[in-house]
Fold this sequence. Notes:
By secondary structure, the protein is an alpha/beta fold. Helices cover 31% and strands 23% of the residues. It has three domains: 17-111, Udp-n-acetylmuramoylalanyl-d-glutamate--2,6- Diaminopimelate Ligase, Chain: A, domain 1; 119-343, Mur-like, catalytic domain (UDP-N-acetylmuramoyl-L-alanine:D-glutamate ligase, 3-Layer(aba) Sandwich), CATH 3.40.1190; 357-509, Alpha-Beta Complex (Protein-Tyrosine Phosphatase, Chain A), CATH 3.90.190.20.
Amino acid sequence: MLEQIPPILRPDFVKPVSLKQLVNGCGLLLVTGDLETSVTGISMNTGDLRVGDIFIAMPGAKTHGANFAAKAIENGAVAIVSDRAGLDIIGTTGVPTLELPTPRLHLGALAAFVYGNLPEAMPKLFATTGTNGKTSTTYILEAMLRQLGEVTGLTSTAERHIAGEVIVSRLTTPESTEMHALIARMREKAVTSVAIEVSAQALTQHRVDGLLFDVAGFTNLSHDHLDDYDDMAHYLAAKAELFQPSRANRGVVSLDSDYAKEFLGLATIPCVTVSYRDDVNADYQVFVTEELPGKTSFEVQLPSGSRISSSLPIIGAHMASNAGLAIAMLVQAGFSEQRIAEAIANGVDCYLPGRTELVSTEGAPAVFVDFGHSPDAFLNTLKAVRKVTKGRVLMLFGADGDRDSSKRPAMAQVAVNNSDILVITDHHPRFEDAASIRAGLVAEARASKPEGEIYEVSPPEDAIVKAVSLVKPGDSILWAGPGHQDYRDIRGVRTPYSARALARQALKDAGW
């Protein structure tokens, strides 16, 4: 069995709530047992269940959670909640059982009640969604909040932060039971503002239910996740769910992608706009003032007419746009323009793991490791690398197996047409044939640019060595896909692997 990453984070102390309170507050129906039974946690799987938890037995894709009720009780569950079908499976138990139709739809509200995450007790909550840039915006926003004097929390694809404590993430947005436990722990640690990355899947799967965000931000929408959604319209609608009154009070929408106006049309909360494009009129206008290998300077013009100047320790005009989105979210949350301007006047002190991360040393060819895995992400990042590269740009990438294969042709086309050298390798093959994935990418790249310098190298450990052998000082390598991740998924096994470490070793072995 794979090790769970990360461990489920919970508060050290939870004020017990009785089943009677849950019945009255959340609409459960007691089937058997004592209503005075106290609950101190909530779980939907036996792997993270703790003594005192209420176990939510839900129907799944392959089996019903009710089949694990006996194991839950053995592990310390003090009560079981399930639908009628689940209760029929469970039968007689030694703990109270309660009925709740479609339990997943109520999981967030139940978790909020159990952990005391009531509106009046919550820190400021910021949510960012979008195909690309939501992780970067979340980190930039948290850094700005910290520089404003807030005690911060963060949950993203890469990490969870709790008042300075850093934990590796498992899912972009955790399940609602874990999310509410995490926020309860943040409250316990006196966190005052939380930046949360919210995926479309999190909204569709009810992982942020029970939360009302002070401000929501939208970065962009581009081709991705069409293995989860029928088409772009359904994908767009899934993200727009965040911009409804039941989810957020106010919104900030970037106008930098083609779907922005359509997204605005679906939003029903008050929204302002932001853009770094010179052909778009936005409430918050972002201007890139300088681009260097390790720094991007920018200005944001606010609706009031004032300007905020700052910089990021990372390359790319799209990153400046993310910073502009974060500034607009802060203003919408009630932070004064002057306070924000003063807090970030000397730059935003942020580290974005695996986001166009420079892993080479001075004097060597530049090697950037990035998490981007969509055509739009490739294009933006390649443009940013090109801006700070005197010589040639080499692109190294592979595609996910058992994921949206419809985006692969565009990934190969963007990669070959915006680089000087292309090396195609493996990424997470999962249960798909890695050679077949590579062959499809190579065919698309060669069809798009027959004269292109294209290599196919497997595995990635060899591919980065080949890439380094093809470049010299003044050139740049962009290794897209792995980013911060420390494993590859090969036939369901998480194989230890670090693109950052491999790139550094390849440079060292080459004499850099």
